[in-house]
Design a protein that fits this description.
Blueprint (H helix, E strand, L loop, with lengths): L2 E6 L4 H5 L12 H17 L5 E4 L3 H13 L7 E3 L16 H8 L1 H9 L33 H21 L4 E5 L1 H12 L3 H4 L10 E4 L10 E2 L4
Parallel strand pairs: 1-4, 2-3, 2-4
Antiparallel strand pairs: 1-5, 5-6
Helix pairs in contact: 2-3, 4-5, 6-7
């Protein structure tokens, strides 16, 4: 029975600082490292051992994957990194303190930017401090200037269908280490969650979520591995 493991990266420095992160590359905190390692220990102890890995191009997800795999004694498995598993691009909000942004724009507007399904934040201006145009990892990639959850889903799901699902269908146990919104896109699809309800779904850092697939590749109910 194929298994899918979803893991949101451990706490990042900007999670700790309460800043909008998006595509900007920040590292894990000490707590984030501990969360990622604990996820791998849980995988090992529960005997849910991944045989193929996917992650984004962002350090916090890559490190989470490697720390978890090392703790599970699976650092040797093949892995694929792809920008389509990156976090949602927060556009012009990138780098801003969330509380200061609420004070400037009002709670209601910030809530719309953060939690609406299809309203993106303001665009990130070209040449601004957090412009990634010169980042070599994104050479040749159409870097968005902002994204709603809807737009994030529109890049994640085709990648799921074309790259990840075939590996899962071949019988591999697949782990995806990614981000709150790219994983929210997958959970929405796999669990059939509505546009309205998906915005309220929180995916905690460092907690493996499991889907088991039947012979028809229809996923069962998702569950947290810690509860298994």
């Amino acid at each position: 029975m194929p298994k899918l493991i979803l893991v949101r990266h451990g706490q990042s420095q900007w999670n700790l600082e309460n800043r909008f992160t998006g595509w900007w590359d920040v590292d894990l905190t000490e707590q984030g490292v501990a969360e990622a390692t604990a996820a791998g220990v849980l995988l090992r102890d529960k005997g849910v051992l991944p045989s193929y890995a996917f992650t984004s191009l962002q350090t916090r997800a890559i490190k989470t994957l490697h720390l978890a795999l090392e703790a599970a004694h699976r650092l040797w498995i093949p892995e694929t990194k792809d920008w389509r598993l990156n976090e949602r691009h927060y556009g012009g909000l990138t780098g801003l303190d969330k509380q200061e942004t609420r004070e400037k724009h009002g709670d209601e507007q910030v809530l719309i930017w953060r939690r609406s399904f299809d309203v993106p934040p303001p665009v990130l201006e070209a040449g601004s401090e957090f412009d990634l145009a010169a980042d070599p990892r994104y050479a040749g990639i159409p870097i968005p200037s902002t994204e709603s959850l809807k737009l994030t889903i529109e890049r994640v799901l085709p990648y799921w269908e074309s790259a990840i699902l075939p590996v899962l269908t071949s019988g591999e146990t697949v782990i995806i280490a990614a981000h709150g919104n790219s994983l929210r896109a997958l959970v929405k699809h796999l669990s059939g969650i509505s546009d309205a309800d998906i915005t309220d779904l929180e995916i905690p850092t460092g907690q493996p979520i499991i889907y088991e697939f039947g012979a028809d590749m229809v996923p069962g109910e998702r569950y947290y591995l810690k509860d298994a």
